[in-house]
Amino acid sequence: MTQNENQIESGASARGMYWVNLSLLAVLGAVILGFALYMTNTHKLHADLTSGGIYSLSGSTKKLLQQVDEKGQGYELVSLFNSDAEKNTQVRDLLGEYSRVSKRITGKDLSEANRDEILGKIFDRYAGEIKPYENAVSEFEKLSKSLDNFSEIEGANLGALAQKEKNSAQTRKECAELQGFFNSSLKEELARQQRAIRKISDSKPAEWWKATASLKTFLDEALPDITSLADKGKYKETFSAPLIAYLDSAADRYKAMSDSLKTYKEHLDKLPPLKVQDVIDSIGSNTIIVLGPTAAKVIGSSDIYKVQRSPNPRETGPTASFEGEQAVSSAILGLVRPDKVKVVFISAGSGPLSSGAYSMITDRLKDLNFEVMDWSPPGGNPGERAPADPNPPAEGKGVVWIVFPPEQSNPQMAAMGMPAPSPTGVIEAVKKHIADGGQVLIFAEQTSTNPFASEGPAGFPYEEITRGFGVDVKANFMVLKSYDSQEGSEALPLFELSRFPEHPITKPIQSLPTRFVAVGRSQMGFVGAPTVVGVDPKKPADVDAQVIVDTGNDRSIWGESTVSAEPKFDPKEDLASPVPLAVAASKKVTVSGKQEELRIVVIGSKTLGRNELIQPQLQMRSGALYQVVPYPGNAELFVNSVLWLSGYENMIAVSAKSNAALRIRDIQPAVLTTLRWGVLWGGAPAAALIAGAVVYAIRRR
Amino acid sequence: MTIAKREVTSLFFSPIAYIVMFLFLLYMGLVFAGLVFVPGQLTELRRLVDFSRFGLFFIVPLMTMSLFSDEYRSGRIEMLRTSPITEFDLLLGKFIGAMFFFLILLGLTLIHLTLLMIFGHPDYGQTFSCYLGLALMGMMFVSVGLFYSSCTQNQIVAALGSLLTLGFFTFSGGLSELIPGSTKIFEWIHSAMIYLSVGTHLEDFSKGVLDTSHLSYFLGFSAIFLFMTYLVLESRKWR
User: Which residues in B lie closer than 8 A to residue A8 (C-beta atoms)?
Assistant: First the structure.
C-alpha cells in the first residue's frame, strides 16, 4: 500500500467516524427532543397572563373536574355557537379550558349541520329509555299484519254482502260504506303508518317516539270505529238487519281485533315520558351540549350570556355578560350527580317564599341544579284557607331545608283576634328532618320589640334545634349601626359588611358588599331586624361550629339588648363589635347505621336573600347610568350556604369572568379612515419603502 | 456577534429588507384595520397574532433565503472557513442577525399597539404573551429559512423550500380537516397534523396563556432545524 493510499484510507476512516458520531448525535438529539416534547405535552405548565385571569377556570370548577377525572367517565362539550365571531371564540376558549384541565373532557366546535352526529351521541346515552319505544314500534309491525289481514277479509266479506241483490238498497249502501272503510281508509292509513315507521327506522338515529306518537293518533281514530263494530248495542242501532246478522256472525273476530288494538294502545299510553325528547327539543344554534356518560344537557344562549343593561342604555342598548363557566359547570355537576338536590323553603304562616320574596334566589339555585320547593306545615298559619299538606315535599338526607322564623303577629291580626302563627309544626318537622340526616339553613330575627310577641312566639323559636349544634341565637339583641348626621346621631338596624371570617362559605365573598337590614319599620319599631348568632361556649364536644359573619372591628355597630327610641351602646348590657351574625356548624352522627355529617347554618338576618337586596339597580356614576347589583354578597352568602349544606362546595364561587369591558371606543368615521389609509395601509408601509430608497440612494453615492 | 452585526448591516443595506418591511407592514395593517381596529371590538392583538402566520410564512423565506445561499454563490463561505470561526459560530451569528431583523419587524407593530392604547385599554399580560408567541414563531420560521438557505446556493430554491415547509406548518391544521377520520391511521395522521400546525400552538399565546407544551414546540422545532443546518454546514467540509 502506498503512502498516498494510506492517507486516503485514514481520511476515509476519519470521515466515517465523523459521520458515525454525527449520526449518533442526531439520534441522541432527536430522542432528547422527542422526550422533551412528550413531557411538556403530558405535564403541562400553564400560566394565564391576562389581568382578569379570564382563561383560568375557577378553583371550584377545577375541583369538580377533578371529581370527573376520578370517576373516569368521559364527557363531551359541544358548542353549536354560530352567532358572531366573538361569542364563538369565547365559548370555544371556555370549552378548550375544560378539556385542558380535565383528561376526561373533550371540547368540540360543531354546527347544526352535524345535527345527526350529535343526535347519535345523545341517543347512545339514552338508549335505555328509548328501547321500549323501539320495541313498541316493532310490536306494531306484527299487529299491523293482522290488522291488514283483518281489513282484507272484512272488506271482501262486506263487498260480497253489498253485491247480494236480495239485500235492500239501504243494506247494500251500508255494506259498501263499511267495505270502503276497510279497503280504502283503514288500509291506506295503515300503509301510511308503515311507510312512516320505515322512514323513521331507516333514519340514523331513529326517533322512535315520533313513530309511537303517530301510531297513537292512528289508533285514536281507528279504534272507535272497530270497537263500535264489535259492540252489539251500538251497531244494532245503526245498521239494517242483514248487516247486523253478518256482524253478529263475525263478532268474535271484531272483538279480538278491537282487544288487540286496545291492549296495544294501552301499552303505548304506558310508555314512560322521555327525557331525551326535552334534550333534543332544546338543541339549536347558539347552544352548548354537555354529553355525560349516561345523559346530556343543553345550555341555551340566554344561560351563557346573561343580558344586562349597558352603561348607557340609550346609546348602545343592552349588553350581555358571559357566564359560560357557571352554566357549563352546573351542567357537568348535574351529570356527575344526576339526582337534583332538593331545597325546601319552610315557614310557618307565610305564603310560598320561593316564588315570592325569594324568587331571585330560587332562580339562582335552579341554575345550580337544585330543585326548589315550598312547605308550610298545617296549623302554622291561623288564617289559612286551604288545608296545608301535612307532609313536607322532601326531607331527610340529601335535602336542604331553608327555615324562616314564623311570621310575627301584627296589629291587624291582633285586632281580628287571630293568634300569631305557631312554629310548633316547623320545629317538629325540622327535628325529624335532622334526625333523618337532613341539612338546615335557619334564619333568625330580633323578636323582643314586637308588642304582640306575648301572643305569638317570643324569643327564638328554633333554639332547641340550634343549641344541639352549639349555635347560640340571642334573639333579644338587635344589631344596630350608629349613623351621624347634622341632626344628630341615629342608630338603625342597617349596615354593610365586606370582610368575613375565613370559611368555605365566605372565602369567595371577601370584599363583596353584603347588606343586613330589617324587614321594615312600623309604629312599634323595627320588624325582622338582624340579630346576634354566635357559637355557644358550652357547645357539645362533637360539634364543629364557626362564626362565618361578624361585624369586624367597626365600633359603630353593636348588639343592643334594650331597644328604645334612641338606643345607645351600653358596655354593661350590650354586645360590642365584633358582633357575630351567622354560624356554620357540623357534627358527625350515625344515621341508619352509617356515619354522616350533619350541617347547619344559622344566619341572623332573614332579609339576606330577599329580592330587594339582590336585584340590580340603576345607578348614576360618572354621568352614566349603570345597572349594578349593589350588594352582591347577599345572594352569594345565601347560595354558598346552601351549596355548603348540600355538599356542593365545589360549586361555590363559579363566577362570571370576561374581558368584554375592554373594547375599542367609538372613533369618528373620518378619523378611522385617516388612520387606516394614513397609517396602517399607506403611511407605515410607504415609510419602509422610502427608507429603502434613501438607503439605496446613499449607497449609490 | 461580529457575524450577527455584519448580517444585520448587510440586510439593511440590501433592498430586500425594505421590501420585507413593506410587505409585513402592509399585511399586518390590512389585518389590523379589518379585524382588530374596529370600534366596539375587544382591545386585543389576538386576531392580529392569529393571522400573522399567514403573512409570515411568506415573508420570512424572503428574509432568510440569502443568508447562506449568497455566501455560497459569492464564494465568501470559503473565506469564512479559513477564518478561525467554527460552523457553530457562523450558524449562531447568522441566526442572531436574522432574529434581530425579525424582532425589528415585530417592533414595527408597536404602531398598531399604540393605536389600541390610544383608543382602548389592552390587557398588558395578554399583549406580552402575544409578542412572546410571535417571537417564538419567528424563531422557528427563521430556523427553517436558515436550513434551506444552507442547503443550496440558489436563493429561489431556498425560498421555495422554506415556503413549502412553513406552508405545511401554517396550513396543516386546516388541511387535517380534509383527512377522513374513518380509520385509526387517518385519525393518527389527523392528530399529528393538528399538533404540527403552528396555529394550534400560537393560539394560546394570542389569548394570553403560556403553556409549556407550546413553548417546547417552538423551541424544539427551532432546535431541530438549527441542528440540521449545523449538520449541513459541517457536511460541506467533507465534500
Answer: none
Residue A139: name the closest of A297, A50, A264, A6 by CA.
A264
Q: What share of chain A is helix, strand, coil (3-state, %, to 5)?
A: 45, 20, 35
A336 closest CA partner among A304, A289, A369, A301:
A369
Cβ A206 vs Cβ A134: under 8 Å: yes
Spatial separation of the C-alpha atoms in residues A641 and A647, rounded to whole Å: 10
Total domains in chain A come to 3
Query: Is residue A576 over pLDDT 50?
Result: yes
Minimum distance, in Å, between the CA of residue A667 and any CA atom of chain B: 6
Question: ipTM score of the complex?
Answer: 0.84
Q: Provide the mean pLDDT of chain A.
A: 82
Average pLDDT over residues A263-292: 89
Which of A242, A273, A304 delimits the end of a domain? Answer: A273
Share of chain B above pLDDT 70, in %: 98
Query: A-chain residues within 8 Å CB-CB of B115?
Result: 675, 679-680
**What's the confidence (pLDDT) of residue A657?**
53
Domain extent for A1? 1-45
| Dihedral angle sign, alpha carbons of residues A375, A379, A383, A385 | positive
- Residue A36 included in any domain: yes
Mutate one of A51, A664, A665, A699 to test the B interface: name it (highest B CB count within 10 A).
Answer: A664
A19 with A159, same domain: the answer is: no
d(CA A286, CA B223): 43
> What's the pLDDT tens digit per position in B166-221?
999 999 988 888 887 678 888 888 888 999 999 999 999 999 999 988 999 999 99
Q: Residue B196 sits in which domain range?
A: 2-236
- How far is the alpha carbon of A29 from chain B, nearest alpha carbon, in Å? 8
Q: What is the mean pLDDT of residues A196-204?
A: 85
Nearest CB to A684 within list B15, B29, B37: B29
Residue A564 domain-assigned? yes
Number of domains in chain B: 1
For residues A26 and A170, state if they share a domain: no
Mean predicted confidence (pLDDT) in B139-149 = 95
The Cα B68–Cα B55 span in angstroms is 23
Q: Please give the span between the terminal C-alpha atoms of chain A, in angstroms, as a whole number.
A: 63
Whether the Cβ atoms of residue A543 and residue A587 lie closer than 8 Å to each other: yes
DSSP string, A425-447: HHHHHHHHHHHTT-EEEEE----
A136 and A41 fall within a common domain: no
* Interval B51-95: pLDDT, tens: 999 999 999 999 999 889 988 888 888 887 777 888 888 899 999
Quote the pLDDT of residue A312: 46
- For residue A663, the chain B residues in CB contact (below 8 A) are 40-43, 120
% of chain A beyond a pLDDT of 90: 19
Same domain? A500 vs A642: yes
Q: Are B108 and A695 inside 8 Å of each other by CB? A: no
Residues of B in contact with A686 (CB under 8 A): 22
* Spatial distance between the Cα atoms of A166 and A163, rounded to a whole number of angstroms: 9
- Alpha-carbon span A525 to A551, nearest angstrom: 23
In a domain, A292, yes or no: no
Task: Name which of A379, A380, A381, A527 is nearest A451 in CA terms.
Answer: A527
State whether B26 and A29 contact (CB < 8 Å): no
Q: Which residues of B touch A92 (CB under 8 A)?
A: none
CB contact under 8 Å between A692 and B122, yes or no, is no
Distance of CA A684 to the CA centre of its chain: 52
| Helix, strand or coil, per DSSP, at residue A401 | strand
Residues A346-365, mean pLDDT to the nearest whole number: 83
**Ramachandran angles phi, psi of A541, nearest 5°:** -65, -30
| Distance, CA of A78 to CA of A108 (rounded, Å) | 5
DSSP state of A486: T
Among candidates A691, A688, A692, which has minimal Cα distance to B26?
Answer: A688
Name the 3-class secondary structure at B34: helix
